[in-house]
Amino acid sequence: MPDPDRPRAALPAHLEPRLLRAFLAVADELHFTRAAARLYVAQQALSRDIRRLERELGTVLFVRTTRQVALTADGERLLPYARRVLEAQDALLAAFARGGPDADRPLLVDVNSPGLVTGRILERARELAPDCELMARFESGLTGAAAEMLAGRLDASFGRFAGLDPAVRARLVQQPVRYEPMAVVLPEDHRLAGFGEVPLAALAGETVYAGAGNPRTLEWTDLARHLFEGRGIEVAPPAPLAVGVEEFRRIMAKTRTPVLATVNFPAMPYTVVRPLVDPVPLSPLSLVWLKGLVHPGIDALRSAALELANDKGWLKRPGGGWIPAIDALIMTSRN
Predict the structure, then answer these.
(1) Which GO cellular component term is one of those annotated (predicted)?
(2) What is the tens place of the pLDDT at every residue in 33-67?
(3) No. of helices (H) and no. of strands (E), the chain
(4) Quick one: which of 63, 83, 107 has its CA closest to 299?
């Protein structure tokens, strides 16, 4: 701990806002694991940011024990300054966001594919905001959608937020929507097609397609690797993306490779969709949009997602359901 009688080193010319956000998250949660989940960063990275901020300010901001985290007197003193700085930054970003000065423009929303729960959310949002134009896009993959959002070509999308690069997550906002039970799409004459539900153990020895090689769906392939690890299931190697029902049918008939999906995957000719069980793997679905975006369509989407999640019980995690630890933290964190 710094000596109170020793003159402090000169303060830095500026402080990175990221360090102040790390400080506020820990100050609010008084728990490093919860704060890391709130910021969508690794706990080690959060600890490094706090130590760096303490070095730059020449003081200790938190007292840490194995049981609790508490603010020091200097931490309490920094708190109101940090809040004012970040509130000013957020106001600046909102003022210059695409949705600020032209909130009456159409809102572009990627719902991934027709027939999914994302489409139900979009339809409900249109009912809640009838004067707002919400335009659907159908481009599978949150990784690709995130790049489009950062480039200003898309406003919102849905998907597995934890699968994005941390630097990308830091520029986006997410609202948990649903724990989606996962499934496998099989040729109708596959050895497992007769099962009403497919135990994960029954897929041992199979090679399952999960979007490997598709740069738009990196988050989905990563989820599959987590799920398959230690279960004797292989992720199918990269292959050309089948676009359209007929191409999907043709490729499925040719390769006979099972496809990892969710239980609401739309029906395809000559295939069956079978839920996965023992355990039930869960795909975490979030509504995602650009940080600082101000638009009535975003408000409508958020309200619609919350309403449907509460009505349908989408955010009640099934007992024994499988989900990666980082996803579980993000799905229960606050924005």
Answers:
(1) protein-DNA complex
(2) 888 877 767 889 899 999 999 999 999 999 988 88
(3) 11, 12
(4) 107
